[in-house]
Each structure stands twice: as C-alpha cells, then as structure tokens.
Specification:
heterodimer; A: alpha/beta; Rossmann fold; 55% helix; B: two-stranded antiparallel sheet; 3 helices
Amino acid sequence: MIARCFIDTTYLMPLFGLNPSIQHLNDQLLQILRLDRFTFLYSAVSLIEIKWQVMHLGKHGHAIDQLERQFSLALSSLKIDPRHECVDFLNADINDLSYELRKLGHNDYFDTIIASSALWEAEIFITEDAPLKKVCQKYIESNQSSEIKKIEILDWNAFHVKYS
Amino acid sequence: MTYEEFGKVGSKGELYPSANLRKLLNLQPNARIKYRISPKGYLIVEPVYSIEDLLKMPPIAEVTVEEIESLSEKMQEQGSSDDS
C-alpha cells in the first residue's frame, strides 16, 4: 500500500540545487524513492520559500542564472513525477487549521500552512522543525474527535530509519 | 552554440528531430521532454529530468535548515509589516 507522506520544504531543496546540510540526504531520498511505498506531498508555499532562498543567494554572489535554470528544471520534474503531488494552499480547510495552529502559539504562517496541509492530507509528516512538530501534536491531542486523521510526525532521520 | 536544420511535418503531425539534433540535445529514447510555445510563437523542446537525475546532480549552494527558516520568517515579517 502506498502511504501519503508530506514533506517539509527542506526535503525539496536538493531538487533545486540547494544542499540543506542533512548528511546523506540525497542518497537516502534515492533509496526511499526506489521502495515505491510513498506518494510525497508538498505545499506550494514550499516553492515560494525556495524561490526566496534562490533570490537571496543570487544577491549574495551565487550563480543566479544557474539557480534559476535549476529552479525551472525542478518545477518540470515535480510536475510530471507521479510520486510527487503539490497541495494548494488556496483552501479554506487548510487556512482554518493553519489559523488554529497559530492560535496555539506558532506564529510562522508558512509553517502552519505546511503543517495544516499535512494534517489534512497525509499519514506521515516529515519535518526538522521541532516547535512545529510540537504544536501539531498539541492540536491533535486537544482535538481527538476532529476530522483530522491519525498522523505520524517524524524528522528525516527517524523516517529513514523506520521506513528504509 | 546556434544550430538550425529543416524538416517536414509528418502525415499525422509528427515532428522528427534528426539524429544529429538528438545527439546535440542528448535526447535519449523514452526520455521525457517538455514542449513550450514562447511569446514569439517559437516551439521550444526541453528535456525533463527525472527526480532521480536531479538528486544525482552536484549541489549549487549550501543552505542550512536554520537559514531557510530564518529567511522565510524575515520575508513574511516584511510582507505583514505595517510599514510595507
């Protein structure tokens, strides 16, 4: 059975030529992809975060032409890859839940959009963001009877150890 | 590098890039490609890499998870600031 696994911005970055300093991430991503056990979901806001990073690097001396070229290549690859699915943030349920997470104390709008998309859409959410993980768990514990299904929240290392 | 060659549209609308053109663009059998029409009306054919191909490419820049987070927060703050 294919599990729906929501990935935070960090794990998309290698596709865009950015190394997020997680040891062996690319090799482990390749290894996980070979298993054919997951559909990887990501938020459209992650692409905006990566674009900001690309623009920032360009302003600070990195090869902007190369980064922009890679950005376009990655967009096309993500679009045709059947194992990756983009989750739109123009969605009232995702917006409402994002607001609930902000009320619980997590003030980063993009983070809460990513987390609420994961809570609505996936069975597994992978993030390195410990405060975000905490606020999601707080929400789940205080809303046991809500429509949100059970979700496993892991960082990359824990995910890789458990599922590879 | 610029290159041009002439061809003919097939009876069913097919376009056949020559062997030389395929070699220049490294278009392998079964490779995915993308067609685009430019604003000037040119047909652009580009190879589309697999996710696996992208992951095997050397990184262009190093960025820590903290740097990504911090820049995103900064951009959001700018966007929601009363002064903006």
